[in-house]
Amino acid sequence: MKTYTVAEVARLAGISVRALHHYDDIGLLRPAFTGSNRYRYYGPDELLRLQQILIHRELDIPLAEIGALLDRPDADRVTTLVEQREKLEARAKHYAGLVETIDRTIARLKGEAAMDDGDLYKGVVSPEKQAEHERWLEDRYGPGIRENIERGREAWGKMTPAEVKSLMAELKAVEEGLADAMRRGVPPQSNDLAPLIERHERWVGLSWNRPVTAKAYAGLADLYLSHPDFVARYEAIETGFAAYLAEAMKAWAARKQRAAG
After folding, report:
1. How many CA atoms lie within 13 Å of 85's alpha carbon, on the beta-carbon side?
2. What CATH number belongs to 125-260?
3. Which class in CATH covers the domain with range 4-75?
4. Closest CA to 219 of 141, 154, 153
5. At what angle do helices 145-158 and 194-208 cross, to 10 degrees?
6. What does the alpha-carbon distance between residue 129 and residue 229 come to, in Å, rounded to a whole number?
7. d(CA 52, CA 13)
8. Closest by alpha carbon to 188, among 237, 247, 235?
9. Quick one: three-class SS letters along the chain?
10. pTM (2 decimals)?
11. 151, 209 in Cβ contact below 8 A?
12. C-alpha to C-alpha distances, 215 to 3, 150, 196, 205, 221, nearest whole angstrom
């Protein structure tokens, strides 16, 4: 069996000797044996385990979780590699689409090519980020929210590219209209916002693929204020817009509840 020293493994893998020492210290990657010279030696099994560690790191999995994944009783290297390949392939496609969007945006800014506003966001939200959002929703609202998530995903999956583009253009128009109202000093509780908020509620219903109750709409407003990604998105439109939009949504929901008796 061919073995390698720490320095040799570090050169092979393109990582530091310090990293290998750390993996040993935390029990993530032990050497095959330690020689009489007190050198650590690594064999084929350790090299394969290191490959798994580094791939998991590329997939943004924390070191604290990698050991548990590798040491599962049902862990199988071939199955794990197949799963990792699928994840990386999906990520590669996502990044390829994102690069294309960036290239087209650069061409637009240089005046070399036209680009529709709706195409600015193609490929920007990754599958991993979407999965992260869904896990966050389940943690916050319980497993019952999964049915609503699947219903919304099904609705989006059935849309043609033109329909998606139209829906995103409508959202952009509504958000810009509301942000402009905020800049003009229109209170978020004002009835003057009713046409825009009604359009926003209709957009949410199309996105969810189900009717939007006043309670659900108010709950969505709370979500907008509690998830950092939503807050960052709305604050990028205009400082203070996240709170303004949430307040406008809650005021609309309260009016609907009063009207319903």
Report:
1. 6
2. 1.10.490.50
3. mainly alpha
4. 141
5. 90
6. 10
7. 12
8. 247
9. CCCEEHHHHHHHHCCCHHHHHHHHHCCCCCCCEECCCCCEEECHHHHHHHHHHHHHHHCCCCHHHHHHHHCCCCCCHHHHHHHHHHHHHHHHHHHHHHHHHHHHHHHHHCCCCCCCHHHHHCCCCCHHHHHHHHHHHHHHHCCCHHHHHHHHHHHHHHCCHHHHHHHHHHHHHHHHHHHHHHHCCCCCCCHHHHHHHHHHHHHHHHHHCCCCCHHHHHHHHHHHHHCHHHHHHHHHHCCCHHHHHHHHHHHHHHHHHHHHC
10. 0.50
11. yes
12. 64, 20, 19, 13, 10
d(CA 224, CA 218): 10
pLDDT tens for each residue of 194-231: 999 999 999 888 888 778 888 888 888 888 888 787 88
**Spans of all domains in the chain:** 4-75, 76-124, 125-260
At 60-100, the pLDDT tens digits run 788 888 888 888 887 777 888 888 788 777 767 766 766 77
Which residues are CB-neighbours of 195 under 8 A, at least 6 positions away? none
